[in-house]
Each structure stands twice: as structure tokens, then as C-alpha cells.
Design goal:
The chain is mainly β and about 425 residues long. It has one domain (about 10-420): Porin (Beta Barrel). It contains 2 helices and 22 strands.
Length: about 425
């Protein structure tokens, strides 16, 4: 069975609309450029087709700010043949007034899906005794409902005055032929005080999913720390990144329940040999795990369980991409990912005039493989038994200073086309 996964609310066309406004805390000086590429406004119409949405038409776009090259605003809207629709508005890396190292990234999304699939929720009478979303659950154990969704997110990041960001919060790279030549942002020392970028994260997040069967609501707060010691943030060639975070819902709203989830991630980047046909080859590796100490997996009411779309969950845009979004979720989860990224010597985009508005700097192809699983407890042996797999190929491109990606991924439940912006890790 063929599946198409498009991000709920952003879609591939928005990935194309994001790059002209970078939304990144860096600027790039390429070759003989005397300054950073200026942000511009772009609007992109798009069309798509998926199993659950039907055929859709939409519009995506972004607006960058010359005065704040690290910031942008963006939006997307679509309507589909089965009556589904979406509206998304957001901004990235807005500098907080009076607090020079604090950046805020808000967004709001409202959507209606007439055939939303959820691998979880109420017990499915067609699969008695089986927990939907568990590691051994059937791919057909889902509910498909007429559903609405509202999401509000307010991400706040404070850049600590350490390492390469000791003096400034915006890093300047010097590249030649899309390869970093001078001024890396990390990978020069293991000491966070000397190398890389360290960030404190605080994020209030609200999401309400209501179907004809039930309403799922959460208002949780995430607190985290991240140390990014990669040499070149948009396309790392060496270095590493790690983060730790904790999320908690205090059960302040009518349809919420109290839950807690902790997670950690480590990503590493290993430079490989170059060849006559490649400009750069990189092995990118990722490990991630999450655990919910509040979840009583033996409880028939799933007491303390995080919502299916957060905490220990796998499947979708970032981890186990061959599976549907949030296909697996439980008390604990683990994930391993690897990508072989190759930037070919052949980069023809400067010679293709009609592509100039997209400001394509380079492209690369990717071979990817992933394994992971969820479990009712954090046990090393259990988490490494009967793991799920996905593998595939991808195409990445850099538009101004943003990354767009398109991954073709296979698993034992079918095939997925995943489109999004930003490298996976």
C-alpha cells in the first residue's frame, strides 16, 4: 500500500516558501559576497494528494526581515476535495525586546480533517485486547474520524554567552562552492564554554484534537538544554549536538490530565573522503530516547500517559519516517538513525535562470536507515528486541539559508513520501 505523509500544516510547498526568509541564527557569505543574502518575500501556490486528505490546493509563503536576518514570518493555507482545510501562521527567531539573547518562535495552526487517522484513543472493537500504537499493534488498529485541531506554540530560546556565541547571537559563515571555509560555529573543542552554542529552552504548548468520539487536550510546558557543537549548522560536516528536556502537563484544563515525559538526543557527524564527483560526504548519526515516568501502562484508563503525538512516540516526519505520524507510542521509546549525505560536484542551479527566485545554493542526495521501538517500560533488552525499521533515499537542497528535504522511505507497512524543511538531525 502506498502512503503519502505531508506535515500537518506545513506541507512541502511551505518548505519551498521558507528559505528566502531564513529564520536561522546565522548568515552565510559565499565566495566574493560582501554581505549576507538579503531576505525576500515569496508566495508559492501548491497542489498535493494524500490518502486521508484527497486532492488539495493551497498557498504558502514567508516574509524575511532585512533588519533581523535571523527572523522570519510564514504561513500556509489549503483546502481539499474531501472538505478538509488548514490555516497556519507563525514566526521564527523574533528577538525579544530588551533581552538580546532571547528569541521567540510562535505559531498557531487550525485544521479540519474529515478522515483523520489516529493510532490510539478508544479501544478498537476490531482488535480486541490490543493497545493501539503499541510496538506489536496492527497497522489497521486506528480510528478514522471527522476531526478538528487547534495548536498554539510559543517556543523561547535563550542563547548562553558561551563558546562561539560568547560575543554575538548571530554567527557568520564563510563558504566557497557551498562548502564551509572559515569561521565554524563548533567542533573545535569538547568544552561548551569554548566551542559551539548552548541554549536554554522554555516552551508552552497547547493542542486540542476533537473528533466525533472523544476530545484530547493538553497544555504542557517543556524545559530543556541544548549544546550544539556542529561546525556548520545548516549542513554539518563534523561535530555533535546533544539535548535534554522534560515536559509536564499540570492538568489545568477541563479535558487535560497530568503527565510527565523526559527525553534526550545525541547527534554526531563524521567527515568522509571526498571524490572527483563529490564536494562533500558526511555520515550523520542520531540516537534518541524518551520515557514517561507518570504513565501506568497497566492502567485501563492509561493514567499519566502523554498524548499520542508527544513524548515516547515514533513515526512521521522525524523518526521512523516510513510509518505514519505517531504510529507508535508507549511509556518508553528508543531510536537510532543514520544518513549518508553526499553533495555532488555537479551543482547547476546558478545556470538555470528560472530557478533564481528560489536562490538554490546546493543540493545533496541522502541514503538513510532507521530502527526504533516503543515499550511499556525502559528496559534495554526489550527496547532492542523486535525493533521497527525504515530505509530510503532523500534529496536535500539549500534555498538561500534554509534547507528543504524530500525523503522516499520504505518500511514493512508500505511507502511514505515525506516532505519538510530542515535536516532531520
Amino acid at each position: 500500500m502506498r502512503k503519502s505523509i505531508f506535515p500537518s500544516g506545513i506541507l512541502f510547498a511551505l518548505a519551498l516558501s521558507l528559505p528566502p526568509g531564513t529564520g536561522a541564527q546565522y548568515v552565510i557569505h559565499e565566495g566574493n559576497e560582501t554581505g549576507p543574502v538579503k531576505s525576500r518575500t515569496i508566495i508559492v501556490p501548491y497542489a498535493f494528494s494524500t490518502e486521508t486528505l484527497g486532492t488539495g490546493l493551497g498557498l504558502g509563503g514567508s516574509v524575511g526581515f532585512d533588519s533581523q536576518p535571523e527572523s522570519l514570518s510564514y504561513g500556509s493555507a489549503y483546502g481539499t476535495s474531501n472538505g478538509s482545510w488548514l490555516l497556519l501562521l507563525g514566526a521564527s527567531n523574533l528577538k525579544a525586546p530588551g533581552i538580546g539573547r532571547l528569541y521567540i518562535s510562535p505559531y498557531a495552526m487550525f485544521t479540519r480533517q474529515t478522515q483523520m487517522r489516529i493510532h490510539g484513543g478508544v479501544d478498537n472493537p476490531g482488535h480486541p485486547g490490543e493497545r493501539a500504537g503499541s510496538n506489536d499493534s496492527s497497522k489497521d488498529n486506528y480510528i478514522e474520524e471527522n476531526a478538528g485541531e487547534a495548536t498554539l506554540n510559543l517556543e523561547m530560546r535563550y542563547i548562553l554567552p558561551w563558546g562561539h556565541y560568547r560575543e554575538n547571537t548571530i554567527h557568520s559563515y564563510v563558504t566557497r562552492n557551498a562548502i564551509l571555509q572559515e569561521n565554524p560555529s563548533g567542533a573545535e573543542s569538547w568544552n561548551p564554554l569554548e566551542s559551539g552554542k548552548s541554549t536554554l529552552l522554555f516552551r508552552p504548548y497547547y493542542r486540542n484534537v476533537f473528533t466525533d468520539v472523544e476530545e484530547l487536550e493538553t497544555l504542557y510546558f517543556e524545559l530543556g538544554f541544548e549544546h550544539d557543537n556542529r561546525d556548520y549548522l545548516p549542513n554539518p560536516h563534523r561535530g555533535y549536538k546533544w539535548n535534554l528536556g522534560i515536559s509536564h502537563d499540570f492538568d489545568w484544563l477541563n479535558h487535560t490530565r497530568r503527565w510527565t515525559s523526559v527525553e534526550g538526543e545525541i547527534d554526531g557527524f563524521i567527515p568522509l573522503w571526498d571524490t572527483s564527483w563529490s564536494r562533500q560526504q558526511t555520515l550523520a548519526l542520531s540516537w534518541w530516547s524518551a520515557y514517561s515516568p507518570s504513565y501506568d501502562a497497566s492502567s485501563p484508563d492509561h493514567d499519566g500517559k502523554p498524548p499520542y503525538f508527544t513524548g515516547p512516540t515514533l513515526g512521521g516526519l522525524w523518526r521512523l519516517r516510513g510509518y505514519p505520524s505517531n504510529r507508535f507510542h508507549d511509556k518508553a521509546a528508543i531510536y537510532y538513525g543514520g544518513e549518508y549525505r553526499v553533495m555532488p560536484e555537479w551543482q547547476p542551479f546558478g545556470e538555470i535562470e528560472f530557478l533564481d527566485p528560489l536562490m538554490i545554493r546546493w543540493w545533496q542526495f541522502v541514503a538513510l536507515a532507521e530502527v526504533g521501538r516503543v515499550a511499556p517500560g525502559w528496559n534495554v533488552e526489550t527496547l532492542h528486541t523486535d525493533m521497527k525499521h525504515s530505509y530510503g533515499l532523500g534529496i536535500r537542497g539549500m534555498f538561500n539559508t534554509g534547507i528543504g528535504r524530500l525523503d522516499f522511505v520504505f518500511c514493512d507497512e508500505g511507502f511514505s513520501l515525506v516532505a519538510m524543511f530542515g535536516q532531520t538531525f
